[in-house]
Amino acid sequence: MTDEQYMQQAIKEAQKAFDAGEVPVGAIVVMNDKIIARAHNQVELLNDSTAHAEILALTTAFNFLGSKYLPEAILYVTLEPCLMCSGALYWSKIGKIVYGANDDKNSYRKCTGNNNPFHPKTELVGGVLKEEAAGLMKDFFKARR
Q: pLDDT tens across 27-85, in order?
């Protein structure tokens, strides 16, 4: 599958968050061309500000593999990671991060500028299906204003 096809799966997760009244961010973890984890934001459901899609997907992947590191895995996430998620991704040693929409307001770049907060071996790719991912976010916040 291509990055776009995997991102479509992350967008399906984001739609689940949207439908549940959560900020619509979805994530999947892929390893050896197989999806090993799926998650979406559950901050409201769990009453937990750390229940971001990336964190939940990482935890599921760690449990699935019985490992605390994911150097061979790829995270697909619909929104550029925040600083908290970037820290978790750093410690996971994930091999690649592919995100959809930029998040100029809350991404890791807000605190780090142009400094890369990810593991030195982590590859970062942004902008995959960004219009579709950004559209979900815009629709979500438009409905709440």
A: 999 999 999 999 999 999 999 999 999 999 999 999 999 999 999 999 999 999 999 99
- CB neighbourhood size of 14 (10 A): 29
- For CA atoms 12, 131, 30, 47, give the dihedral sign: negative
CA–CA dist 85, 27 (Å, integer): 12
**Helices (DSSP H) in 1-145: which residue ranges?**
3-19, 43-46, 53-65, 83-92, 109-112, 130-143
Q: Give helix then strand counts, H and E, for the chain.
A: 6, 5
Q: Is 37 helix (H, G, I), strand (E, B) or coil?
A: strand
Catalytic residues: 54
